[in-house]
């Protein structure tokens, strides 16, 4: 499956984009961009931490991917939705183009400002392995909107992709390819530290159980097939489990090396 390549957006640097969200009064912005992310500050001002997710996060790190609804991770979508309703938003039905993703359609709450054009989808942060900051007593730390680190987003997408069972992979192929596309976009970007995701050494920022997948994506070897194929998915499910069990240690692929595909998994 051919993936689109990205050309970094130059007009807005990563630092400037972060400042626009964290300190909106101190950085001038276009009215369009300000309106789109105003909801992030509105939630934060009410003590609801939120994390920008999916395509908008990728754009902040330089991707030229198209954006649709603004997806935000929050601890409690219902609580966050109430705050936005009080501010004039109305709850709407989910975008039908995501009918293949119950993770969004069923688990998320979609709202829209009256006469507005941007939909806001509130998603449970725990579903995507993103945690709100907590004080020592377990209460939510009051803070402004968050742009999650790129490596956390990549870890999340890899974890979701690997969580699809081999039995369900074909049935949920559209979902699997969608997540695979988001993973692929990351490999044309640099993170907030200026580190290139496509560098094999970037594995140090990822969870150990995702490093074999990372090494496969960045490697070049003869007759290489896309990591989203059924056979590679089966391979990486098994390797991820072996890494967690301590029976496999991921290493960067040799330039001329090739990891033989494993037999079909016998899943429970």
List keywords for this structure.
alpha+beta; 5 strands; 268 residues; disordered N terminus
Question: How would you describe this structure to a colleague?
Answer:
With 268 residues, this protein is an alpha+beta fold. 38% of the residues lie in helices and 8% in strands. The chain has ten helices and five strands, in the order H-H-E-H-E-H-E-H-E-E-H-H-H-H-H. Strands 1-2-5-4-3 form a five-stranded mixed beta sheet. Helix 6 (150-163) runs antiparallel to helix 8 (173-186). The protein starts with 13 loop residues before the first helix and ends in a 23-residue tail after the last helix. The model is unreliable at 1-31 and 262-268 (pLDDT under 50).
Can I get a quick summary?
The chain is α+β, with helices and mostly antiparallel strands and 268 residues long. The protein is built from 10 helices and 5 strands; from the N terminus they run H-H-E-H-E-H-E-H-E-E-H-H-H-H-H.
Uncertain residue ranges: 1-31, 262-268
Q: Strands across the major sheet, in which order?
A: 1-2-5-4-3
Ends apart, CA distance between termini:
29 Å
User: Which series of helices and strands comes N to C?
Assistant: HHEHEHEHEEHHHHH
Helix content: 25-40%
What structural class do the secondary elements suggest? alpha+beta
Mean pLDDT: 83
Tell me, what's the shape?
Answer: elongated
Rg over alpha carbons: 19 Å
């Amino acid at each position: 499956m051919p993936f689109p390549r990205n050309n970094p957006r130059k007009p807005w640097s990563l630092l400037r984009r972060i400042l626009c969200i964290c300190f909106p009064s101190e950085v001038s912005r276009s009215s369009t961009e300000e309106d789109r992310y105003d909801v992030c500050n509105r939630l934060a001002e009410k003590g609801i931490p939120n994390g920008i997710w999916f395509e908008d996060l990728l754009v902040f790190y330089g991707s030229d991917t198209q954006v649709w609804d603004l997806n935000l991770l929050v601890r409690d979508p219902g609580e966050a939705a109430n705050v936005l309703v009080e501010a004039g938003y109305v709850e709407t039905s989910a975008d039908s183009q995501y009918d293949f993703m119950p993770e969004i359609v069923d688990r998320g709450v979609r709202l829209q400002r009256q006469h507005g054009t941007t939909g806001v989808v509130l998603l449970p942060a725990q579903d995507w392995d993103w945690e709100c900051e907590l004080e020592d007593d377990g209460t939510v730390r009051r803070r402004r909107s968050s742009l999650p680190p790129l490596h956390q987003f990549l870890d999340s997408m890899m974890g979701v992709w690997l969580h699809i069972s081999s039995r369900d992979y074909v049935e949920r192929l559209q979902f699997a390819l969608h997540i695979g596309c988001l993973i692929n976009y990351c490999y044309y970007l640099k993170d907030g530290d200026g580190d290139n995701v496509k560098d094999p050494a970037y594995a140090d920022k990822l969870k150990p159980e995702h490093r074999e997948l990372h090494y496969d994506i960045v490697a070049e070897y003869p007759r290489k097939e896309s990591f989203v194929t059924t056979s590679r998915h089966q391979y990486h499910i098994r390797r991820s489990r072996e890494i967690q069990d301590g029976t496999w240690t991921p290493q960067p692929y040799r330039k001329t090396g090739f990891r033989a595909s494993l037999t079909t998994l016998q899943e429970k």
